[in-house]
User: Fold these one by one.
Assistant:
Number 1:
Amino acid sequence: MTDTSIRSDSRERTRERVRESQDEEEDLVCPECGGNLVSDEERAETVCDDCGLVVSEGEIDRGPEWRAFDAKEKDEKSRVGAPTTKMMHDEGLSTNIGWQDKDAYGQALSSRQRQKMQRLRTWNERFRTRDSKERNLKQALGEIDRMASALGLPNNVRETASVIYRRALDENLLPGRSIEGVATASLYAAARQAGTPRSLDEITNVSRVEKDEIARTYRYVVRELNLEIQPADPVSYVPRFASDLNLSDEAERRARSLLETAKEKGIHSGKSPVGLAAAAVYAAALLTNEKVTQNEVSEVANISEVTIRNRYHELLEAEDRIQPEG
DNA sequence: ATGGTTTTTACTGCGTC
DNA sequence: GACGCGGTAAAAACCAT
């Protein structure tokens, strides 16, 4: 390689001269009309100012920007390494540090050197895991996006979910847990935080992970990240149920107020928010004379009819006690 | 693991269309 | 008779301890 590289240096030099003069944009004249040549950097062209002749276009100098006069100098100045390969996730660009404490000639390293190499291995490993985190993140974010659109969740929820996932990743919560599990848990948490909760069942439907695992992972993530997530507000389910059942705005309004008074009376404690919301929607439909069966409500809310019955009695009772005139 | 609470399942009876 | 509704008991699920 020494011969060719030295020989090519002369070419290199002339090319560089040309480039220098072009860069400075001086003393260049159009071969056709003798007008000024202007370089259009945006299009990588050199054009004549007067006649519009394109002297050169798409020119990219692929040579090195430095000159070397012998092989040693070339080695020193060259900053490129081994060819890349698609067979490795990082195209073979990440650093590998051998585990033997030997130098390039097979000699054993001094203890001082050994310690140094050990430290380097440690750090190299840290950077490598950072890389792997990036890949995890990419997959997880794709998964979050998929599930979010399946559930019709807005963008801000997706972003919140991404943030949660990132934090989980940073806190090393991933080992021992599946990416998809944590991604799902993040989305579940984000949806609740954003006030547009989806029930665990709904989440499970679009996730590739079992319900149990989601619940477990969710609890874990919430605990480890100290996420503050209040029990879901029943009211936040109302709009969705109401629209799924084609109820009037009036009914929806009454459902809300029903839940409000229930809240004041402290009826809802330990009861499932979904059940409460479903019961409120059902009760509101009754009050506004809109036909909805318990069965229909139980369908859209994924709650049993029995629960609806129990809850909506309590709701109406609470309402009556505050406003005896119904 | 356990016990207490809530939800679900399954079944029944009643009234209406 | 099918359907909507209410109630009940037992099973299952959930949650904190």
Number 2:
Amino acid sequence: MSVTIKDVAVRANVSPSTVSRVISNNPRISDATKERVRAAMAELNYQPNLIARSLTNKSTKTLGLLLPGSNSDLLLNPFFVQIMRGISSYAKSKGYYILFTHVDSDEEEVDVLSNLVGSQWVDGIILTTVKDNDKSIAYLKANNHPFVVIGRPDDDMHTYWVDNDNINAMFNVVDMLIKKGNKKIGFIGGAHEFKVTKNRLLGYLKALKANNIKVDLNLIYEKDYSEEAAYEASKEIINYLIPDAIVTTDDLIAFGVQRALIENKLDTVSLVGFNNTVLSRYKVPSITSVDINAEKLGIFATKLLINQIEKIPILTNSYIINTKLIERDSTK
Amino acid sequence: MSVTIKDVAVRANVSPSTVSRVISNNPRISDATKERVRAAMAELNYQPNLIARSLTNKSTKTLGLLLPGSNSDLLLNPFFVQIMRGISSYAKSKGYYILFTHVDSDEEEVDVLSNLVGSQWVDGIILTTVKDNDKSIAYLKANNHPFVVIGRPDDDMHTYWVDNDNINAMFNVVDMLIKKGNKKIGFIGGAHEFKVTKNRLLGYLKALKANNIKVDLNLIYEKDYSEEAAYEASKEIINYLIPDAIVTTDDLIAFGVQRALIENKLDTVSLVGFNNTVLSRYKVPSITSVDINAEKLGIFATKLLINQIEKIPILTNSYIINTKLIERDSTK
DNA sequence: GTGAAAGCGCTAACAC
DNA sequence: GTGTTAGCGCTTTCAC
């Protein structure tokens, strides 16, 4: 059928092992035979069968990427695609493939992992969300399988992870708003089970405290990552009081807030998004947002994982990716 | 190291081949031994090594997914993620994995394909864009490798593909607008090299013709898939004349148009997007758009591909996925 | 109904 | 420097 190492060997009048050595560029092969073998490979249009190689090497040069399920708008968020782009490009540069799977439910997640890992399909796993007491993390640790998570895990000293400094990023947003004179600041975040939400909320609280502003629980909402839920939450806040500003944990959420603000003609209320998606810039008014460098998150996560797999000594088990506040018209 | 078929065999006091037969549920194995083997597998927590299986079976149960490069906002478009979700969920239901790669340039595309195919990593390929004289399609055909494309290819009788009826979908949009009294209708599309753009333009032209409206080339723009480019194009159209309506080939483009319209206080101009992304619904005014059923595109593409790989007789080499016009406030 | 043996395409230890 | 050989973990033909 397709041409194998044996065919090349016959053609070049050498043994299969010699061909293999030429492929891996083994220095002990004479230049003459190298030439001959390479010529044979070219003539026969030979391409190594990576499956066979994987079997002997016990390594597939493939990374598994677990994406969250379809129960929220989370995946529709462009920042996921940016992360994927980062992962894909770094992986490619290091000769790795990416296998991806959606996970529909929490229970399923460990099953899927167990398949991927147990079947020896992947050399490592990239997790894209982190929860408290994350089952997937627990499973991978128990099985001692290389993995990296995007987001800060509970056991941040003994896990490979990348994340933004979400506490600080949100602290800066809120602090900036307060310095500009805003006092009554609402917070609308995604589901509380996600670490991101939790940490951004922490940053919010920290900033209030640092500026001696009392926390008002009626101004704090944590729902799911949808435009609609955010819209509803904003209306509740507005009914309670007219805030000076509303901060959110995602642009999609900010879009929902903006809709509510516009509907209620509240053009004095400041608004801040997160993740700096393409559209935040083009909204009217354009929305101030925090650029989280999603592509970089993907790149460094993959780097951490590949170093781990290839046992390349690394100085750190994590990277904090810098964020950048992009001020636009929605904050005065 | 990890537990293999041999370990199970020893434990269950049978030969490896028997274990293999139990795994594949071979009917000639007695229920008693089946039981025994299954028990052994459970006790040892055995999971088949898929790499080894792939080597013997000459099938990896993995599909390669090629995504467009980073030179446009195309990939940031939520509809891509929806397609991926469709692909992933159907593939999963049939026991297939998905390997994905970004392609940065056209030249690179064939290289990447040749790697994927030649290395025998994937059983089939999913192409997500189609161009005229598509090199990738040519390569896959030449190598006789199973593939499917999302979008209608040149040789639509001898290629597996899924697509919307883009000509008709756009025809209906424009026809509807004309029936409502709009006459001067602008068209802003993505890059002309993409078949999608071409076909939607065709539908636009067809509708004008059917209604005896003369084509005005000053109202037709084909740029790239970006908000910004669309915004600029709209301004040029507005400078030329105030249109009754503007149709676009993508919501992202429509967003750019809307920004230009709002800036110029042109609230009488109708606007239609495409792909019905989440945000079109929440824009102010909400944007009429065409739902292309992206997830379904992914599902049926994968179905076509897997049937082909497994040599399941199929009645058709393509599916036309229905579209649905979602009327909102942007069209009067 | 079950076992023995060969082979998928590659790599690597061991010879010479 | 190069060849021989065994083996990665599985499936499958051929025996019995």
Number 3:
Amino acid sequence: MKTISCMNIDENLLRSFGAEDKTFKKKETIFNEGDHAMYYFQITKGKVKLNNYNEDGKEFIHNVLGKNQSFGDALLFLNQYYPMNAVSLDNSEILRLPRSQFMEMLRQNPDLSLEMNACFSQEIFYKLKMVQSMASQNPIQRLTGLLNYLKSYHGNDCAHSFPIEFTRQQLASLVGLRVETVIRALKKMEKEGSIVFKDRKILY
DNA sequence: CCATTAATTTCAT
DNA sequence: ATGAAATTAATGG
């Protein structure tokens, strides 16, 4: 399966269409659920998480993005509100391009537009698989689905080599489980040989 | 070091 | 099997 590390647009191109560099401190909000989707965001430094809180205040994380990754892009094609929050996890630097200029950039660069479609396809494909695994009650199923998804984001898929850069709590929030069950499931998975531990990090 | 944050274990349910 | 609380380990200043 070929993987395309999702959407990384040339910085100079972005700047030439009016993208500005924004900096966000650790924990700072980039946008909130309910805000209008008005910008294309691309990370040049740091990390960003996309999340929601359920009715009892339990966090659900949709994804954590890093350098050269973009977020919120799909919403730009939809005149819609953000269905989630974006929070900076580090001191981050982010290129921000207003919607109208973003659209103009695509109009003038059809190739880029195509590339973007490929990314969306990839995204939808793996999200779908995520939903399938999330429908299971079995923690191992859920985690396996998540790991595949995360791996698809990073790129190369050499067996047992992709390091998971998330805390156990984050993994739990990504699959809607408690930390303890994640820890227990991971142990079982290691025993079964589907993952491997390097110190405390997970290799998949 | 000490303080904070993360990982794991224990102990009920 | 699961989660809240307690314990232990690591990380950062």
Number 4:
Amino acid sequence: MVDKCPDCKSDKLVKDYEKGEIMCKNCGLIVADNVVDTGPEWRAFDSEQRDKRARGGAPIKYMRPNKGLVTEIDQYNRDIRGAKISSKKQAQLYRMRKWHKRASIASSMERNLSIALSELDRVASYLGLPDAVRESAALLYRKCIEKGLIRGRLIESVVAAVLYAICRETGKPRTLDEIADLAGIEKKEIGRTYRFISHELGLRVPLTDPSQYVPRLTAALKLSGQVQEKAIELLKKAVSKGLVSGRGPTGVAAAAVYIASALAGERKTQKEIADAAGVTEVTIRNRYRELKRELGLKIADL
DNA sequence: AAGACGAAAGTGGTTGA
DNA sequence: TCAACAACTTTCGTCTT
């Protein structure tokens, strides 16, 4: 942000919101034009800060051309003389109030949405998600706006959280790590936002089934379809034995792939699988041990 | 020499008082 | 708000191939 005139070094800059320009009061130089959004990308760490920093959605100049003096249609169902008006008219007034209100918030929603949707599309295509998934994600995002869940949060982090939720819901789970990487948002921030919106919207997102990670793992490791099937079969048994609850799904999936690859004679090292799955070798070993014990597996050629 | 194994200590997040 | 806790990671020494 410019705070000094580059020409005369005066710091008396005037923001002209009508023209969208920043002008030096001293020499008249237009320091910047086409100023779109002077609002900071802030994060509120507590409610006090939030109150201080919150801006009502979009910046003032586009949002409120009348400088905040909004018109409202009053609540009293009386005409100008104070006489009661007919119920038919009352209903009409009710609708007018409703739409009047809606029209005034519609524009800020639109702005937010257009930023969000392009971000959503960007991340979704990096994640390789089909259009249908993007559509549901967009829908979910809309719901978030309608409930006012965005305020106080970065649009990007809400987008990331929405994508995470939708991916899980549609059985194409992506890890928080992957999404965090692409969206450029911290993992814990996404997790926090995700928990918040899923709670607020009453989302019923199922627990991630480890076998949903298997196809991507086997593909990344160039393993055959046989291995994939075998791994999924193992996981099915593991799930029925309750071996999965409380465990990270990626770790369990990795262990199953490890076993399956060994059984099919397409052995991969623990390290290779660990890297592909985003867990450590130790975790694979732990899950692998559990699987072997609980499923009574005899693995001769390991 | 490289991979597999497991113990021990450390890390970040959740939960329940 | 804090401590206990579980899952996971890091690190490291030992064993196997």
